[in-house]
Structure formats: structure tokens, C-alpha cells
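Figure 3 (text version): C-alpha cells given as input.
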């Protein structure tokens, strides 16, 4: 049987049961620094959004690839160059141009990221 009273919390060997950590307000717990001391608005790093760079690169690559593939296909038809499957030709051109533009967008994103890091170090 337990010797504790349901109205009174159990005591630990070190003394009464300490208050739970959730009772103290946020930022006032011992050993926890205040949030406003951690963030300096003058030194916030503005990193590029990589997903946006890659998405724009892919969309531009598809548009330019379709235009280039159709244009090259029209030149081949005008010059009487036999082409068995013009759709496959356009698809391959679109894939190649899209790959190029996505890689170019990634390179620009890396350049922008490195530039933002250098800007942070100068401050």
C-alpha cells in the first residue's frame, strides 16, 4: 500500500516534487538565452531558394527546347532531309535543352549563395 495522500504530491528524497518545466514562461528558463538576443536583423543571410531556381530553369528549358526542336524540324522538312520520327527528334532536343537550362540555373543559384555568404562576412 502507498503511504501518500491523493491530495498531496509525493515527496522525493531531495524534498518536495519540483514544478514541471512547462509552468515557466518561454525564454525565462534558466540557461536558455532570450530569442531577441540571438537574431540580429542587420546580419540576416538571404540565401537563394534553390527550388525556384531549378523550376524556372526547367520551364525556360522546356519552352526554348520545344521552340528550337520545332524550328530545326521545319528546317529539315524545308531542305528535304528525311526524318523518320520528328516527334522523337523534338523530344530529344527538349530533354537536352532542359537539362542544360536546369544545370545553368543551378550554377546561378550556387553563385548567388556564395555571394550572399561573402556579403555576410564583410559585415
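Below: residues designed for each position.
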Amino acid at each position: 500500500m502507498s503511504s501518500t495522500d491523493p491530495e498531496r504530491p509525493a515527496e522525493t528524497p531531495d524534498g518536495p516534487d519540483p514544478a514541471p518545466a512547462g509552468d515557466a514562461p518561454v525564454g525565462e528558463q534558466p540557461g536558455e538565452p532570450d530569442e531577441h538576443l540571438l537574431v540580429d536583423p542587420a546580419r540576416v543571410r538571404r540565401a537563394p531558394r534553390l527550388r525556384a531556381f531549378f523550376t524556372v530553369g526547367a520551364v525556360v528549358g522546356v519552352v526554348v527546347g520545344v521552340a528550337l526542336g520545332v524550328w530545326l524540324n521545319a528546317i529539315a522538312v524545308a531542305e528535304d532531309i528525311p526524318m523518320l520520327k520528328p516527334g522523337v527528334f523534338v523530344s530529344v532536343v527538349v530533354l537536352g535543352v532542359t537539362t542544360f537550362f536546369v544545370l545553368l540555373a543551378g550554377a546561378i543559384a550556387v553563385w548567388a549563395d556564395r555571394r550572399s555568404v561573402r556579403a555576410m562576412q564583410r559585415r
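Strands lie at 11-12, 15-16.
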